[in-house]
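Batch manifest, entry 17 of 40.
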Amino acid sequence: MKALARYLRSSTFRLAAGYLLLFEGSVCVVLGFVYWTTAMHLEVEAEAAIDRELRSLTDRYRGRGLASFSRVLEDRVARSPRGPFIYLFATAGRRTLAGNLSGWPDAAPAPDGWIEFPLRTAREPDDTPHLARARTSALPGGLLLLVGRDMHEIDRACRRIRLALVWSVGLTLILAVAGALAMSRGTMRRIDAINRASREIMDGDLARRIPTRGTRDDFDQLAEQLNAMLDRIQELMDGIRRVTDDIAHDLKTPLTRLRTRLEELRDGGGLGRASAESMEAAIGESDRLLATFAALLRIARVESRSTGEGLTSMDLGVLARDAVELYEPYAQEHGREAVFVGEATALTVTGDRDLLFQAVSNLVDNALRHGEGRVVVEAGVAPAPGGGGRRGRIVVRDEGPGVPEVDRERVFRRFVRLEASRNTAGNGLGLALVEAVAALHGGTVELGENEASRRGPGLRATLYLPVGGGPPPRAG
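Output type: structure tokens
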């Protein structure tokens, strides 16, 4: 039913339905015209036959007289007692002299001289009255002649034509709807293929391309143009990655040498207190620069690697607990508290343990450096989007100022820091690495307010990961 509803909502079906209405209207007009002309032709032919018969009998009466005319009329009735023609020969007082009518009809003639009246015959088992049409002629001597025709056969033919037209319109409608659904299905398949390729590309598979059928139709031409655009985008992104890696590598070596020489100067003695402090500050700046380049290289490697590399099964709770234990001394040193809540053996995920541990550690580090109060780390299970099973969840909560809703997407960009003065240690790459690791494993990371915070709004960072099986394969 969902597939049918989707087809009915598609633009292809709406276009086909519009054409269907136009086509059905045209068919109705054409078939209606055919019915009208056929019915008119049958009626005109019947009236012409009645006029010919009336003129023939009138001429016979005038040429042969009353006695001969009565015999001729009786012979015609005898030859075809069940025929369609109706005869009545009567006096001026409308007393029947001959014919196959029991009496003169009560219907008054129309302005054009035609009389229509109900006729009962013994030909129908239920004695159903039929419509008859007739004309009259006044004969010499004050006599009257009525010649008509039973219109039952013509009416039955018209009913059959109407029934055939109704069936034709119905069958045309059914075939047109079936054709519209078939067209929509074929078109939706092509669109679904484009959508699937687009989703995989957005998930990180930059080598994915939109399939073509080789028919050179509109969809193939569109797919070729989009694939050419994707080739160009991938080429540019690969170039940016190469440039970033090259810059990081080229600057990392001289910075390392600079730091080593600064340490040698500091450890060699002969420096005053002010010079030693300046030297220590220079070494600290070198360490921060090296950490920044190391983080950039790590993010680049995460984004460019395949998820099939180095996968192992691990307990999500144990992973979160280990990250908390790593930062417990740091938290205590700064008068803070970091605690783990959850089952340590309840959730199994498949992925790169080092990368996932780095991601969870970054979330804890971010909460300790930029948040306030108690940091709580929790591992648990959450329903998957759309109700399709479940997924693992690691939640890191703090009681600090939190992140404004308008900035929650922006903070995942590289080098973005909400602190305007940028006095706090950090390079703005921690959350970018978390997002890259989550995407590599088919998961997501979300930020929100900590509802359990007793101070400020707090920050709730949630890392979602697939439970059980590994992440979807991806080529970067």
